[in-house]
Write a structure and sequence with these properties.
Blueprint (H helix, E strand, L loop, with lengths): L22 E3 L2 E3 L6 E5 L6 E6 L3 H18 L4 H17 L1 H12 L3 H19 L9 E2 L5 E9 L2 E5 L5 H7 L2 H5 L3 E5 L6 H10 L8 E3 L4 H9 L3 E7 L2 H11 L6 E4 L5 E4 L5 H11 L14 E5 L3 H12 L20 H17 L2 E4 L18 E4 L6 H4 L6 E7 L2 H8 L4 E2 L1 E5 L3 H10 L4 E4 L14 E2 L2 E2 L5 H6 L1 E9 L5
Parallel strand pairs: 7-8, 7-10, 8-9, 10-11, 12-13, 12-18, 13-16, 15-16, 18-19
Antiparallel strand pairs: 1-2, 3-4, 5-6, 6-22, 11-21, 14-15, 17-20
Keywords: Oxidoreductase
Protein name: Aldehyde dehydrogenase
GO molecular function, one term: oxidoreductase activity, acting on the aldehyde or oxo group of donors, NAD or NADP as acceptor
């Protein structure tokens, strides 16, 4: 058996930015119709990475018209041929992993070493959905000898995909896979804060799909609203915040189109007294996703630790958190990146002020790093607060930053009530060595994705999505593929034999 570890992609010595900064639709690049461009900023340095088209309603209308025309050509393409193209995209992601990772490190502030994994994940999603194209099946219904009744699944049409800034090229590619595999055409609106890797992906994939099948249109709110509300968009999918999800639903409601929403979270980690304190501390720190500054909807930003192991866990949490030190995102040695923008940076700092005002005990971090090399970027230390209570602002609201609230508990029912009291329900991490406790708690928490003695990991084929206001639908599984189809029933009356 070959046990050799495959070589890791090389990290380029410098950032190679995309040549094109306009909208890509109809297989061509198009300047914004009103000529408007905006700077995209490197959050690690505060420097401009150049201008990108700020597309509006007219640009989105043109892209949608192109995608609608292309749907007629893409829909009848045999499923296995569509799969072949998706597998080619997967290989492109692997071949260009270092370049794409470096672009995202510069543009969204995540450490380049961690961004390499995004290429692997996106390629795996492409291959996963490519492998499922023959499973998009209907069913037959027995009607007796005089009729045949069966259902088929058909693509919906033009799909709008709005993606966030925390994993731009991974989401641009991976979140397009299911829609393309099922015969839809797609328009991706990349994050306005970090659009460059999506544009580079369009450059790399140019010519693979028929013109108009895969499109990337950068822009802000006006472009997003037009994409979700346009009558020729058959379905809109979003990874983003709860307020953005509400806006997309409201816009989509005008034409009664389905939505797929993966939204925010104020997720809980629960540690029982029988759990190993060192394991729990690793889960507490790892689950917060400090690597990308807690800018992850699945981060377990509330940790509920039983009083029996509370002090020991806190001591170990402080030790493990020391690994994460803000640094220049394009440096391969960096373990923690930068906050995406000045606006979000100032928002995160305001939560640190509120934690102090509310009386939370600072365990680690709590401010800006002192390194003068980071003075012009948007950096915040991994900030961990102990002895938190439910009425504190950092305990109730999704911060989308490196801020962790830790609670001590003794009464299980009261703790579970507090876990479920928030409006979110995306993930939960449970730590215990008792299988009964694990199952009972997993059934009680109001969350769509639950880990036991694990945290942060996603698994291809396992449905990911939220309860309550954390979203609608499931992704990364065959159910995501079905979501981009609609079912049609066909009834055939057979003539009686003469």
């Amino acid at each position: 058996m070959n046990t050799a570890v495959p070589p890791q992609p090389a990290i380029p010595s410098k950032v190679a930015l995309p040549d094109h900064r306009d909208a890509y639709y109809g297989g061509k690049w198009h300047a914004p119709k009103d000529g408007r461009y905006v700077d995209t900023i490197n959050p690690g340095t505060g420097e401009s990475l150049g201008q990108v088209a700020d597309c509006g309603v007219a640009d989105m209308d043109a892209a949608i018209a192109s995608a609608k025309a292309a749907f007629k050509e893409w829909r009848p393409v045999p499923p296995l041929e569509r799969a072949r193209i998706l597998k080619r995209v997967a290989q492109i992601l692997r071949d260009n992993a270092g370049e794409l990772a470096m672009i995202d490190a510069a543009d969204c502030g995540n450490p380049v070493k961690e961004m390499l994994a995004d290429a692997t994940i996106a390629a795996a999603q492409m291959e996963f959905f490519a492998g499922l194209v023959t499973e998009v099946k209907g069913a037959s219904i027995p009607m007796g000898p005089d009729a045949v009744n069966f259902s088929v699944r058909e693509p919906r049409g033009v799909v709008g995909r709005i993606i966030p800034f925390n994993h731009p090229f991974m989401f641009c590619a991976g979140k397009s896979a299911a829609a393309l595999a099922t015969g839809n055409t797609i328009i991706v609106k990349p994050p306005e804060q970090a659009p460059l890797s999506s544009l580079r992906l369009a450059e790399l994939c140019d010519g693979l799909f028929p013109p108009g099948v895969f499109n990337v249109v950068p822009g802000g709110r006006d472009a997003g609203a037009r994409l979700s509300g346009h009558p020729d968009i058959a379905m809109v999918a979003l990874v983003g915040s709860v307020p953005t999800g509400r806006a997309v639903m409201e816009s989509a409601a005008e034409t009664i189109k389905p939505v797929l929403l993966e939204l925010g979270g104020k997720n809980a980690l629960i540690a029982y007294p029988d759990a190993d304190p060192d394991d729990v501390a690793g889960g507490v720190v790892g689950g917060m996703n400090f690597t990308w500054c807690g800018q992850s909807c699945g981060s377990t930003s509330r940790a509920f630790i039983h009083e029996k192991i509370y002090d020991e866990v806190l001591a170990k949490v402080k030790e493990k958190a020391a690994y994460y030190k803000p640094g220049i995102p394009t440096d391969p040695a960096t373990t923690m990146g930068a906050i995406i923008s000045k606006t979000q940076y100032e928002r995160v700092l305001s939560y640190l002020d509120s934690a102090k005002a509310d009386g939370a005990r600072l365990l680690h971090g709590g401010g800006r790093p002192s390194d003068p090399k980071l003075a012009n970027g948007f950096y915040v230390e991994p900030s961990i607060y102990a002895d938190c209570t439910a009425d504190m602002k950092i305990a109730r609201e999704e911060i989308f930053g490196p801020v962790l609230a830790i609670f001590k508990w003794s009464d299980e029912k009261a703790m579970l009530d507090q876990v479920n009291a928030v409006e979110y329900g995306l993930t939960c991490s449970i730590w215990t060595n008792d299988v009964t406790t694990a199952h009972r708690t997993a059934m009680t928490v109001e969350a769509g994705f639950v880990w036991v003695n694990e945290t942060s990991k996603h698994f291809i084929g396992a449905p990911f999505g939220g309860y309550k206001q954390s979203g609608i639908g499931r992704e990364e599984c065959i159910e995501e593929m079905f979501a981009f189809t609609q079912e049609k029933n066909i009834h055939v009356k057979l003539k009686a034999p003469k």
